[in-house]
Amino acid sequence: MNQGNRMINWMHDLWDYPRSITGHGVRSTLKYLKGINSELEVHSYKSGTKVFDWKIPYEWNIYNAYIEHESGERFAELSESNLHILGYSLPLNKSISLDRLLPHIYIQPDNPDVIPYVTSYYADNWGFCMSENDKNKLPCGEYKVVIESEKKPGNMELADLIIQGKKSEEIFFSTYICHPSMANNELSGPVLSSALIQYIKAEYPESLYTYRFAFLPETIGSITYLSEHLDILQKRVVCGFNLSCVGDDRAYSHVESRLGNNLADNALKASLIDLSNVVEYSFLERGSDERQYCSPGVDLPFCGFSRTKYGEYPEYHTSADNFDVVTASGLQGSFDVMKSIIDAFEMKLFPKINVKCEPHLSKYGLRNTVSHKNILDDIHTRSDFIAYSDGKHSLFDISNKIKKNLDLVIAEATLLEKHGLITLFDVQQ
Amino acid sequence: MNQGNRMINWMHDLWDYPRSITGHGVRSTLKYLKGINSELEVHSYKSGTKVFDWKIPYEWNIYNAYIEHESGERFAELSESNLHILGYSLPLNKSISLDRLLPHIYIQPDNPDVIPYVTSYYADNWGFCMSENDKNKLPCGEYKVVIESEKKPGNMELADLIIQGKKSEEIFFSTYICHPSMANNELSGPVLSSALIQYIKAEYPESLYTYRFAFLPETIGSITYLSEHLDILQKRVVCGFNLSCVGDDRAYSHVESRLGNNLADNALKASLIDLSNVVEYSFLERGSDERQYCSPGVDLPFCGFSRTKYGEYPEYHTSADNFDVVTASGLQGSFDVMKSIIDAFEMKLFPKINVKCEPHLSKYGLRNTVSHKNILDDIHTRSDFIAYSDGKHSLFDISNKIKKNLDLVIAEATLLEKHGLITLFDVQQ
Amino acid sequence: MNQGNRMINWMHDLWDYPRSITGHGVRSTLKYLKGINSELEVHSYKSGTKVFDWKIPYEWNIYNAYIEHESGERFAELSESNLHILGYSLPLNKSISLDRLLPHIYIQPDNPDVIPYVTSYYADNWGFCMSENDKNKLPCGEYKVVIESEKKPGNMELADLIIQGKKSEEIFFSTYICHPSMANNELSGPVLSSALIQYIKAEYPESLYTYRFAFLPETIGSITYLSEHLDILQKRVVCGFNLSCVGDDRAYSHVESRLGNNLADNALKASLIDLSNVVEYSFLERGSDERQYCSPGVDLPFCGFSRTKYGEYPEYHTSADNFDVVTASGLQGSFDVMKSIIDAFEMKLFPKINVKCEPHLSKYGLRNTVSHKNILDDIHTRSDFIAYSDGKHSLFDISNKIKKNLDLVIAEATLLEKHGLITLFDVQQ
Fold first, then answer.
1. What share of chain B is helix, strand, coil (3-state, %, to 5)?
2. Which of A61, A183, B142, B222 could bridge across to A326 with cysteines, CB 3.0–4.6 Å?
3. pLDDT tens digits, A8-64
């Protein structure tokens, strides 16, 4: 749970930064993440830059916002929650009646207690988000609406970090830094990536594979990143994961790639075997940046990993997505899943048995010497592992084939390699 | 329902022609169909001509038939129903006792009210078909049996019609003209084919693909047609459908090809998605001319399409297969299924997205600008369509992959092509 | 049932030989089997010989063994059951107290009435096996333990028999001769193989394929055999079966090969269609010599065949595995399954229809001439067989495709070949 608690602490620190797809909330978030891993590099893109079918939008900054009744009472104050402001609201300072104000107030119809998260990045608009209960309490009369924001040409920031390995083949983790004051979606992804970076640097100072981490605003960020690096990514990335909603402790979710069954899909399936409440979603149920990474003509070998997937939990995109939802053990569970996959890559993926026929396991102390059907002889994992150690099945394949969690398979590989019974190769034999 | 009503009217006109695999009933039927589409060409084959393992049988004509009791009362009169005569009965005019008559009378054991449809094309025989109720009423005594038929060397007719397109690749529709006075099996097929011909000529006067329609006696007709045209059919036909029992409104049936999963199978599956009561039959449940078109060494990419499949509805091959079974809406449903497939071919099968990553849909007015999880944002079909528009998946593949009816997929393709977001190709990219 | 009764008689004769993986019990067993088929060749391997990761163990012989209470009463006498002695027990002649004796006594915890079968081939040990009931009756006091055995350098025997066919391609049957005084596991395998040899020699004196039969001690025997013949086996064996527990009459079991779907898997599936209580086990549930034959780098096209699989019946590896478990009809069932497979190979595997389109079956008397939906027209097997007689589907493939037992498929092939409608080829066309 060590990692889980550290990740939770980072999330608390990051909670109040007013994140959006651009602006000072993003900048301060990236600065904080660079504090955790100093190799993080921040990249800046000018508003208006064309990225595939999109343009980098104007930079938006929010400083203050509230609605003030003629009585002086204030509502929907930004200082109380970053969610109160419709993302990318234009600046405003004017008096209007309640009737004309109401169409600009967004609520969450299925839960009167929570503030929804609403944005309007690509069309001029303004608005406030409130709980339905609070909205219903707005007194009649005149209101002053104050939005101290800026939306103008500026920059969009994103960051990446590359851990160079012996091989140029890359494992790529991507996550978001554009969601304000929500926990699972999405402070959980950036802190998980930060913890994984620290793990790789500590555990594999001379790693076999190259690891790439990206911290991006969703959609426009990944499109921008792909627009700049597509060639190199297509050449190098062998396995990628989109990390989103990785902090609650309810389910483990796999959003399959567009065509299904790439290396990332196989790896994630193997790492999820025997965990509780595993859910597989087809690509038709995607909704995060695997949309871009797997798009036709991009086709990176990505899939999506979540605990409870975006859209599948009631607190999603509301003020209720907080530290009641995300827990240290939830984050730790995600860390362990990704750690196993990294461990498998680093130990080399393709085991091959060094002898013909089954090895004489009892000779190595790897099996009982008395054969009796009632002595618990639980070496099925071992003999099944060996049966598929043909240099053609990866550790992920074996795990999926013998239906044992990747961790157990890695443990068997470690033990059998120690006894000289298998050799591990980084390419199929 | 426009097409459905026209097809029903044609069926009424064709009802009384005494069809069999040869003879004047076939000739008058083909003449009527040529009245609908004048390009229809009738081909004549001499009795005794060898066609693969078969020989064109003698021509059979039936003019009159009845059983007359010594009292003068007549039974099983051809003038009341074409089904009363055992198909290919030899001519006869003799007196016999009831005892010796009864073995020549065929009934439908599971329904005492209907006349069964029975034939004996390839062995000399004579007989009558009656409802069990009527058979039981035959009084004791002597009978005169009168069959005014001819069975002698002559010709077998069949017809085809080819609509030449820009490409030599053909879509082939085959159906029967050998069934007397039954509606679903088989006046429905010939009228559906006739309506499809009119649709293609009106909608696609310069069609991309070439369309071939055949109107044949079942089995011997398709064998004859294949015997004459096998080389050219194997070179050109890319997709074929056997149309039989396409007029009732109860189910939609797909009889899979011999090896499954050819272009016709994929197309039909796509066009049936979300219709009510869709049934997939394996090739083991075939029973129509897909038997010949898919036979080893012929192997045209055919499958079978029916509403309720032959053999699967109680009225099948009896006098109850009438206009209570076949309806305008039933025929219209079949028309719509085949029309979608033609539309897909004509719009070109392989869409390819023109941009990398997801397009910025809201820029084109193809998506809401406010992102809020409770605004009904039903653009799943659109984004799923785009996700598989990689130039490799056909419109049929996409439909089957994203589980949306081919019509919806065609609508998306039309819209996205209009906005310049996709290009459609007639071959895989 | 002819074969079944002969096999049962052989088993009775072989019952008392004190089999283990080496020693005089094996030698006398092989001598008896050579009496049935004189071409059997016995091969001898010196203790200590390295075979892949293993060494041929010392030869073990057992002559007498018992426990004698100070009162003179004897227990666990070898002369009463070969199972009383722990396999490979060291010689012993000493007095010990009950307390020190008990840890050397093995029982079957889930059944107090039976003697378990226990061995310790590869670690020095001694012990007795008793029913729990008998163990509980051992009186207090001193015991003399007598084991008159030898465990010392010597030989391990195994045998094979090859029936040379016109083709060098081999069908390989392997079974065990190392189990003492148990019926299903494993006297059933050796007698089945013996009966199959007689069948092939009688039925196919000039066989098309070459047949190889091996009679081995389990594990070490097959490893030794593979160690000596691997190259030739990999070149020649096209289909192999491990025969074990083939004598009871409860189920038919198929243990799939490592990668699944090899020729042996397809053949066995075809031969089991429509039998009662067929169970398919994945390779993860293996436990017999398919472990060696399918191991990585060996990869012979083997699968396992059993009636009720080892480990899946309560009498397995106990004194209850006797002639109440194995019956003549159980053995006959196994014989018939393997016989069909041999028949299919010998008739040549790939039928190809000689005509295009469906043949005119009624012309050959192979179909009714009157077509009436209520005349039972059960020619589905025939027309389905023809539909897949394309020279590409083997008799096994066709059987699995049309879901008819291999026997029926062979009968159709025989009939259609007689009428000149198909030609059978021994290689895919």
1. 35, 25, 40
2. A183
3. 999 999 999 999 999 999 999 999 999 999 999 999 999 999 999 999 999 999 999
The answer to whether C283 and C47 have CB atoms below 8 angstroms apart is no
Bridge partners of C182, per DSSP, are none
Instruction: State which residue of chain A sits closest to C316, comparing Cα positions.
Output: A373
Tell me what ipTM this predicted complex has.
0.92
Residue A69 in this model has a pLDDT that exceeds 90:
yes
CB contact under 8 A, C53 and A369: no
Q: Do C298 and A363 touch (CB under 8 A)?
A: no
Contacts of A230 in chain B (CB under 8 A): 356
Task: Show residues of chain A in contact with C122, CB under 8 Å.
Answer: 360, 362-363, 369
Tell me which fold the domain A350-425 belongs to.
Answer: Arc Repressor Mutant, subunit A (1.10.10)
Give, in words, the CATH class of B59-152. Answer: alpha beta
Q: Which of B56, B122, B242 to mutate to test the interface with C (most CBs of C within 10 A)?
A: B122
Residues in chain B with CB shorter than 8 Å from the CB of C356 are: 52-53, 226-227, 230, 295, 297-298
Separation in Å, CA of B122 to nearest CA in chain C: 6
Interface test with C, best of A350, A363, A372 (most C CBs within 10 A): A372
Report the pLDDT averaged over residues A161-189.
97
**Shortest Cα–Cα distance, A51 to chain B (Å):** 9
Indicate the pLDDT class of residue B376, thresholds 50, 70 and 90. very low
Q: What is the pLDDT of residue B56?
A: 97
Q: Which two tokens stand for residue C240?
A: 């192999």
Contact A387 C108 (CB under 8 A): no
- Provide the token pair at C414: 């025989």
Strands A170-176 and A237-243: parallel
pLDDT tier for residue B61 given thresholds of 50, 70 and 90: very high
- Domain range list for chain A: 2-57+155-346, 59-152, 350-425
Is it true that B59-152 and B350-425 share their CATH fold? no
Cβ within 8 Å, pair B369-A125: yes
Q: Closest Cα to residue A363, out of C128, C50, C310? A: C50
Q: How confident is the model at residue A379 (pLDDT cuts 50, 70, 90)?
A: confident
Angstrom distance (rounded) from CA A309 to CA A245: 6
Under the banding of pLDDT at 50, 70 and 90, the label for residue B367 is confident
> What number of other Cβ atoms are within 10 A of residue A14's Cβ?
20
Tokens describing residue A160:
């990446």
For residue C1, pLDDT beyond 90? no
Fold type of domain C2-57+156-346: Aminopeptidase (3.40.630)
Query: At CB < 8 Å, which residues of chain C contact A?
Result: 52-55, 106, 108-110, 116-123, 125, 219, 222-223, 226-227, 230, 258, 283-284, 291-292, 294-299, 311, 316-317
- Tokens 């907080």: give the residue: A322
pTM over 0.90: yes
Task: Return the CATH superfamily for domain A2-57+155-346.
Answer: Zn peptidases (3.40.630.10)
End-to-end CA gap in chain A: 38
| Whether residue A249 has pLDDT greater than 80 | yes
